[in-house]
Each structure stands twice: as C-alpha cells, then as structure tokens.
Specification:
Length: about 400
Amino acid sequence: MSAHLIMKADIAEIADRDADVRTPLRVALFSGNYNYVMDGPVRALNKLVAHLEARGHKALVFAPTSRKSALDYAGELVSVPSLALPGSRSEYRLGLGLRSAARRRLEAFKPTIIHVAAPDWLGFSALNYARKHAIPVVASFHTRFDTYPRYYGMAWLERHITAYMRYFYHRCERVYAPSQSMVDELARDAIGRDVRLWARGVDKSVFNPGRRDLAWRRAAGVGDDDVLVAFVGRIVLEKGIDIFAEAVKRARMENPKIRALIVGEGPERGHFENKLKGGVFTGFLEGEALARAYACADIFFNPSVTETFGNVTLEAMASGLPAICAAASGSCSLVDDGETGLLIADAADVDGFAGAIGVLARDGAARAAMAERARRKSDGFDWDAILDRLIADYRDVASR
C-alpha cells in the first residue's frame, strides 16, 4: 500500500475514533438500592449517574423503591416490583426481576451498555437480558455478601454464596472493585474474569478539618481534653459493632478520657446503646452535619471486614482523623499502617483494637502527625478524575 493510502486509512481511523468518543453512551444501571437507604454504594452510584449526565451521556436506573426516599437521587429511576427482606434487615428490598413494564422501558431506552451493581434477582435478570440482546454488561462489586452469614449464626452458607457470586460475576465483561486490595482479593477468589479498579472520591469542600467545632463537642457532653473515638455507618452487626463497643470499653478502663461517638442509624441501635453506655449517639447525619461530626472526633475506628472500600474511612481521613481498622480489603488500600493509622490483622482481636485506641489516645503528637498524613493522602481521591476513567472504560467495553 502506498504512503498516500496509509495516510488516508489512518485519517479515517482517527475520524471513526473521534466520532465514537462524541457519541453519548446510554447506560442502564441495575441496583438493589438506589434511593431508599443511604449507604456507601448508593452515594457512589448516584455520583456516577450525575457525572454521566454532566458529561452528556444518558443513564437510566432500575431499582426497588419505597414510599420515602432517603436522598434527592440523580437521574431517572424506574421502580421495579420488590419485597422487603425478612427479619432485622427489612429496610432493604429484594427486586423481583425485570418485569414487563420495566422491560419495555429498557427496550425503549436502547442501552449501549448495562451496569449491574448487585448479584441479586434483578441483577440476574439484567444479565439474561443483556445476553439475549447482545449488549455488553459490566458489574461493580460493593459488598462481600458472602461474609454476612457469619454474623447471623449461618457461617455454613458462606461458601455457597461465594460459589454463586463466582458464577454471577464470570458472566460480566468486567467487574469493577473499589480498592486495589479488593481487586486482588476478587482475582484470588476467581470472582470475575477481568477485575478492574473503580475507586471512590471524597468532596474536600465538605469533609475537612476546618469543620471541627468545640461548642458542638461540649453540647454533646464531650470535654475539650476527651479523646473522641468515632464510628460512622449503618448500625448493623456486620459492621463490627460488638467489636467496637468492647474495644472502646476496654480502652476506657485504662483511660477514662476516651469517649465514643456513634453516627448512624439501623436496626441494631438499641443493642449498640446497651453495649456502649455513655456513648454519644447522633442518629443519621449527612452533608455539613456529618462533616462536623467527623471533624469533632479525634480517632476513627472501623472494625468491619465487609467493606470493599470504606467511604467512611476516606471521609474520616479527609476530616483529619487517624483511622484504626481491621486489616481487611478496602481498609488496607486506604490506611498505611503506622503512618495514617493502625491496622489490626485479626478482626476479632478486641485487645488489639483496644491497645491501638489506647496508644493514639495517650500520644497526642503521634495522633496529630497521623491525622495530617491521612488528610494529605485523601487529596488523591478526586471524584471527577475517577469517574472520567470509568466512563473511558465503559467506552472500551462498548466498542468491543
């Protein structure tokens, strides 16, 4: 082929690529929860939809809904039939698959890519629809659901749920995990054929040390020289609330200046309050009120092993807190042991957690140095850059 023909071919290829970049994506997102309970995955998914639309793309969300929304959600939400989960988790709902009305809306939308955010019945229906209509499908991994049974006396179920998750995610073109440690863990467990990183960001204009308010602490009955240890999240057993309560109580036996701050709501709040007498329980907070609560604490403590990232840990770091965490997926990618916080290898090691609290409570200088390094590390988690990379990956999948 002549140089002239090669040049023409190259120009045509570049033009085709540019035209593809200019063509808006049409993303159909399927989630078990998008607006009715506020948690880390919901925040991330709403950020994603808002960013897609801000960049000129189209998004349509399919999820169960309830009468009361927990947030002013982003994008268009198509409600699917659902049932409340039984027992203590009745605030969550199980989508009953992709029924006729939702299916017609999906067909009219003509998605170029389908994103599944949970391996539930609705997500399974979306996988089947994608395969039937030759639409590429990706998944995001938000929670190690297979670890939940160990907190409810059904540990024997864990391996069966893991096997199902392995089958589910192998049907997806790509699986996005929120931390490198989670990427490595999923690859190790063969959950997904192509596992990639979709990190999380933090809004530094909201979460920062400048939110600290001594008047707020005093109003909550916390002394200026007290060391306030914070828990932030849903108050459920799998967040490690029993470990948190026991570790704080043991640390307080050595240092009565240690106090506990609990930010969140959930079905186990009464149980948590009984285990942690004298703790400051604020209930659910968001926005500036949540940011102030973080900044008013001195140490962040997250004993959970179910986190795949740990949005609350990143928010705490941005607020200028050293973090004490279980050395589990998510936390290992955020906390540098001995630098920005402390990691405890055994998530059941109450004495280890209590000792870590005691060390940071006693040494204000070390605590302040870790807090500053944690704040600086959080600077690397920018939402716009993270979501733009995900959209670029969407395009790569759709082009195949």
